[in-house]
């Protein structure tokens, strides 16, 4: 019997549909994670399709996924990488390129960022021998306090990198105006915010560079994976160079002589005619993703509108259901002019008798997953003791995040029954701790 690719993929879809069938939810017996992948037969089939190509690095699916990302985000260029953290590393590293002339970041230059966030938004600043300048957040949105932002700018400040916290866009009008006024680069960390909208446009196209993550917790997944977005052709060239070992050549993987003069270059102190594929213009990395990852992305991005709709509906259900607790608990508000693409549902516990830590223990005991707001105040962590940095203010709001904030899930795998159980459990906790 002849085995064809299509027959293999049909069997994969059949197998996957059975394998991914959700088990019935049992309140108190089934764990409700804060996040997770949502896969179907099409996802599995495209991953296997890519495997059957036998092409183990970036290829045809990468091209398709990058094109789809550009269309969804409204950006000219999308560069697929192996993680969101790598995307942030590339975004900051790209701004150190000598090709940028006087605007290139140099060791000792400052980059403004949040103290309350995820480590790999901050780490690339340190890894590139730059100085992070930490500013505080606005507790109403969990995003940058724009009043603190401009006050933090010093003579060596050259860039800003900020995340759209848990899918809620930061005040892009204000931040962009400040960046333009002081000639600062702006990097949007959109790793938790794919599909969020500000002033009618998708986040990711407002800054000079933006980043995405496709870890299984995020809006769509490629397993591990991320992307760097830009509308600037020169920056895109630099990003690709840093991603691909630092090479000067811009040929796609498996392609040769795109420029038509592969052996007609003379760069640096190399002899004339040295193979352009092996000329290096940056101290780069190899951060490419595989085509199997990209294939999953091609399938997942088709489901993005439905995933975002589910996230918003779940967030709304939690917000409405927990409204009677307002005061004892503070909830995040969408930033003005924005339509968030929620990554999680934040609660800041104001009731000291109840306490954030007791709430966490209670929910986890009832199999409801919880998370802190990532690192809270990162300067409290062992890794950041003794780093060269500047604190622009007292970071009191960031400390509140460390002490009193948690979030719970809204990802598309959460059902109505799970939401009702979550709401009931949280209300019961506060009733018992009145």
Tell me the layout of helices and strands.
Layout: H1 5-19, H2 41-53, H3 60-73, E1 77-81, H4 84-94, E2 110-114, H5 119-127, E3 131-135, E4 137-138, E5 143-144, H6 146-151, E6 157-163, H7 172-181, E7 185-189, E8 197-198, E9 201-202, E10 209-213, E11 226-230, H8 233-243, H9 291-300, H10 304-321, E12 329-331, E13 338-339, E14 344-349, H11 356-365, E15 390-391, H12 396-404, E16 405-409, H13 416-432
Helix pairs in contact: 1-2, 2-9, 3-9, 4-5, 4-8, 10-13
Task: Characterise the protein shown here.
The protein has 434 residues and is an alpha/beta fold. 35% of the residues lie in helices and 15% in strands. The protein has an eight-stranded mixed sheet with strand order 1-11-10-7-6-2-3-15, with helices on both faces. Helix 1 runs antiparallel to helix 2 (41-53) and helix 2 packs antiparallel against helix 9. It is flat and about 80 Å long. It starts with a helix and ends with a helix.
In short:
With 434 residues, the chain is an alpha/beta fold.
The major pleated sheet works out as: 8 strands, mixed
Helix content: 25-40%
**Spatial sequence of strands, sheet with the most strands:** 1-11-10-7-6-2-3-15
Please mark out the parts with pLDDT under 50 across 5 or more consecutive residues, or reply none. Answer: none
- Based on CA inertia axes, which overall geometry fits? flat
**Average pLDDT rating:** 96
Q: Gyration radius, to the nearest Å?
A: 23 Å
Structural class: alpha/beta
Counting DSSP H or I runs of 4 or more residues, the number of helices is 13
Count the strands? 16
Strand coverage percent? 5-15%
Q: What is the CA-CA span between the terminal residues?
A: 70 Å
Element-level helix/strand string: HHHEHEHEEEHEHEEEEEHHHEEEHEHEH
């Amino acid at each position: 019997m002849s085995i064809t690719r299509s027959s293999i993929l049909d069997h994969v879809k059949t197998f996957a549909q059975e394998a991914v069938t959700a088990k019935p939810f049992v309140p108190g017996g089934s764990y409700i994670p804060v996040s997770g992948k949502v896969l179907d037969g099409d996802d599995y089939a495209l991953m296997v399709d890519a495997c059957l190509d036998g092409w183990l690095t970036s290829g045809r699916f990468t091209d398709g996924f990058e094109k789809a990302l550009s269309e969804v985000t409204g950006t000219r260029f999308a560069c697929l990488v192996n993680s969101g953290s790598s995307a942030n590393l590339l975004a900051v590293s790209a701004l150190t390129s000598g090709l940028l002339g006087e605007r290139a970041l140099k060791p000792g230059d400052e980059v403004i960022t949040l103290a309350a966030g995820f480590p790999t938004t901050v780490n690339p600043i340190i890894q590139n021998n730059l100085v992070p300048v930490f500013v505080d957040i606005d507790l109403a949105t969990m995003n940058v306090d724009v009043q603190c932002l401009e006050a933090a700018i010093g003579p060596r400040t050259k860039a800003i990198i900020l995340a759209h916290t848990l899918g809620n866009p930061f005040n892009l009008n204000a931040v962009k105006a400040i960046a333009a006024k002081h000639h600062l680069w702006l990097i949007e960390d959109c790793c938790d915010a794919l599909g969020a909208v500000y002033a009618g446009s998708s986040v990711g196209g407002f800054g000079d560079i933006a980043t995405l993550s496709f870890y299984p917790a995020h809006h769509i997944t490629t397993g591990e994976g991320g992307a760097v977005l830009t509308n600037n052709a020169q920056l895109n060239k630099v990003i690709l160079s840093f991603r691909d070992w630092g090479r000067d050549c811009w040929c796609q993987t498996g392609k040769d002589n795109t420029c038509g003069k592969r052996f007609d270059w003379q760069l640096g102190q190399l002899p004339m005619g040295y193979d352009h594929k092996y000329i290096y213009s940056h101290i780069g990395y190899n951060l490419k993703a595989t085509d199997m990852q990209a294939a999953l992305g091609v399938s997942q991005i088709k489901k993005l509108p439905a995933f975002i709709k589910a996230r918003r509906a779940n967030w709304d259900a939690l917000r409405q259901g927990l409204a009677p607790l307002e005061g004892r608990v503070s909830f995040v508000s969408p930033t003005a002019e924005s339509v968030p693409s929620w990554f999680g549902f934040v609660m800041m516990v104001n009731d000291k008798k109840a306490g954030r830590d007791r709430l966490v223990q209670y929910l986890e005991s009832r199999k409801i997953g919880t998370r802190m707001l990532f690192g809270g105040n990162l300067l409290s962590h062992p890794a950041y003791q003794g780093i060269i940095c500047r604190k622009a203010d007292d970071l009191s709001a960031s400390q509140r995040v460390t002490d009193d904030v948690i979030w719970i899930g809204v990802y598309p795998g959460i059902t109505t029954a799970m939401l009702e159980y979550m709401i009931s459990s949280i209300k019961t906790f506060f009733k018992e701790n009145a």
